[in-house]
Design brief:
The structure is a homodimer. By secondary structure, chain A is α+β, with helices and mostly antiparallel strands. Helix content of chain A is 33%, strand content 27%.
Chain lengths: 446, 446
């Protein structure tokens, strides 16, 4: 993309309403614009990051054997009356009446609707196991929406639902979700720690929240520092292997790691003192096993091998897709702006032309742009007639992990400059070497 | 995908509520499930087609230089009061009150919201031309929703908005949209004819609707048969070339083609009698130039080169993404079921194992599955223990354009059968040849 043709409305001033750094940076970098309290338009740069995160979630869910679909945003109130949650849910549920006076609601979650789909179509244990998920906009009418997309009212969430014949099978689904979530967050450049959590209005016994450590997190968290040494890495995983998935769950959840809701000071004190940590965390996902709570309320049963009709065992599993954009920025920024991890960056690298209009500089930039594009990479080329300082400030603000700087002085020696946004380190390379290095970083060449 | 692990709830009976063939087939093929009147869940097979259509629209819009973003589903009533449409829009607008009693609405279209974004960030002609678009769920509270996803209440639409300094520039944007739409529909296997149309509640002078001819279309259309001879094909297009885009507009719109709303019998009678056609059509898109209607109401002005402040010239341009799923089926089916065009098929081909459990047949199917997948294709392998007739009926119903049939008898002679869903023609090929033929059809090998 050439910046002269893009829509990147960066702001010079720090917006007064934004209290936390991710909200400030998303506004300044032209990623979002508030439409109403807690409701945002995703401007082109923000939309690109949102899609990258969504794609990672899709890829990892499909890899785990979970099946994508899409439920609507608006749901029937009657279904929520069946489960008993219509009255329970409180004022966070946005209630709507249509032109015929029928009660609807903007879905805050989808346990009822997915269970209705299941009970309409599945009646035999032979069709299990089954995990369906979707990535769809939800609405929760927060009384005081704030922190930008971190606590918005209209938000994008992945929510998945497993249907299994018994608790053991459902716990394997639970473990598959834990593993796929660990992989997903790592691909986004995040360390998200699974912590024992409280089930809240979803219900159920087993639940873990995934928390990203950040000073601005809304939850206080307590953990054994040994948990932050764990990484999933590129280990091979067979999602049908019950023991392997269970082993990963144990590896990542056997150390103490809890939010304030489930914190147990006595247990915490048993950790060696030098490993006890208190910090703040941002919740970016949660998995639940809740057994037959919804299947019993809504009559979702299957026939087992011996002919008995049993309610299916279920769980639900969510990733806050739009919230993650803010969470990643909270975890990865500096005074100059955002620092995108490579996995979610909106453009793979920036190209800064120090002397727009100079035939040689323009030509070198166009050649770089063409080479990177031909490799399947997406560069953002700042081809505006602006001074170098302004171009650098914009690139730093929007946080592309790599920048290639092209100027007449370097070109005289046959070199351009490749700079890491994270470390600030630069090296002089031929244009060809710079392209190859960037391509190698993103794994498009060996 | 192995069918034993998929969620494909095909129905045996013809659902009573479905009046048109696409609605019946989408229910029978397990593509959708109604959640409420005019509101559908997209089951896995339907979701895959929806995504394919969405991807084509994204690719062609980006190719035309239009910039993707995303606006929220819920909008502020105040913005619609500014434009004067809040009261005008009538009962089709779903009006909502939040917990604080603030008036909102579920967006039926986005002229107001995009103009608000524009006026907040753009003030100079130097930032033009600019076309922003999004693909987002909309809601129109139809009094009698029917025909499945063809006239739903919650529906997925691509809507794009151009901002230009004067009418001439805006008409080039109009032409770019016409060209990109022609390309998009052809990639979906559709012939969509641009017809002079009525602007309705959007307003404006210049507008064309794109109609797909089908017996179940809601509009009566009148045209010169010469228009159906036109195809866009794979001609090269430079979207910056004003004359080229204008030429394509003229080529595709100079013959008579109108809906009943704008039909002019006197003009129609001037067409040679043997080329006069009356038919029914399904509207799958519309483009509008409406000048300064919204920019004046909302104060969206830019400063021109000579320092004057002028309201921007705008247009809006829509493609009915969810409706297209139905429209494609209306245009492409037979007694046995759907016939997907290659461009939008949910799976590239089916693999039918005639003797599940037979070691040789199972092995050959697995090998085919592996080879196709390695080429980046997505086969659907019917690995269920069902009789052959049932497997064929399912494949015919869900409409994959190509089917590879594997059985012990053929394997003895080293062959499998490749069958075209459209023609019903089969040929015997070695497994290797079958894979190569399918790969060539989809352009993944030469």
């Amino acid at each position: 993309m050439r910046l002269s043709r893009y829509f990147l409305p960066v702001l010079k001033e720090i917006p007064a309403e934004a209290q936390i750094v991710s909200h400030r940076l998303m506004l300044r970098a032209g990623m979002i614009k508030q439409a109403q309290a807690g409701i945002y338009s995703w401007l082109p740069l923000g939309f690109k990051v949102l899609k990258k995160i969504e794609n990672i979630v899709h890829e990892e869910q499909i890899r785990a054997g979970h099946i994508p679909m899409l439920m609507p945003t608006l749901q029937s109130a009657d279904l929520w009356r069946e489960s008993g949650r219509y009255d329970d849910y409180g004022e966070e549920m946005l209630r709507i009446s249509d032109r015929h006076g029928r009660d609807m609601l903007y879905g805050p979650t989808n346990e009822e609707l997915i269970t209705d789909i299941f009970r309409s179509h599945v009646s035999s244990y032979k069709d299990l196991p089954l995990t369906l998920y979707h990535i769809q906009w939800k609405f929760r009418d927060e009384v005081r929406p704030r922190f930008g997309v971190m606590r918005g009212r209209e938000f994008l969430m992945k929510d998945g639902y497993n249907f299994d014949v018994d608790k053991a099978a459902a716990m394997h689904a639970y473990n598959r979700h834990l593993v796929s979530y660990l992989r997903s967050y790592e691909r986004m450049g995040l360390q998200a720690i699974p912590m024992r959590a409280d089930s809240g209005p979803i219900g159920g016994d087993d639940t873990h929240e995934f928390l990203v450590l950040a000073d601005t997190g809304e939850s206080e968290v307590f953990y054994d520092s040994a948990v932050t040494d764990l990484t999933f890495g590129d280990r091979a995983i067979d999602y049908d292997d019950v023991a392997q998935c269970q082993g990963i769950l144990e590896e990542f959840t056997s150390r103490y790691a809890r939010t304030d809701e489930t914190h147990d000071p006595a247990l915490f004190d048993q950790i060696p003192e030098d490993r006890r940590r208190t910090a703040r965390g941002i919740e970016v996902g949660q998995i639940f096993y809740f057994g037959t709570k919804y299947s019993e309320a809504l009559g979702a049963t299957v026939q087992t091998a011996d002919g008995a009709a049993v309610p299916v065992h279920m769980g639900s599993h969510g990733i806050g897709v739009s919230r993650l954009v803010g969470a990643i920025i909270e975890a990865s920024h500096d005074d100059k702006g955002i620092i995108w991890p490579e996995g979610v960056t909106p453009f793979h690298c920036g190209i800064v032309n120090l002397k727009q209009g100079d035939a040689e500089a323009d030509g070198a930039c166009e050649a770089l742009y063409g080479s990177l594009t031909a490799l399947g990479l997406e560069p953002l080329y700042d081809d505006r007639k602006e001074r170098a300082g302004g171009k650098f400030a914009t690139m730093d603000l929007i946080g592309l992990p790599w920048r290639i700087t092209v100027g007449p002085r370097g070109l005289k020696n046959g070199v351009v400059e490749l700079t890491s946004r994270r470390t600030g380190e630069s090296e002089e390379l031929t244009p060809q070497e710079a392209v190859e290095k960037v391509a190698r970083i993103y794994g498009v060449i060996d």
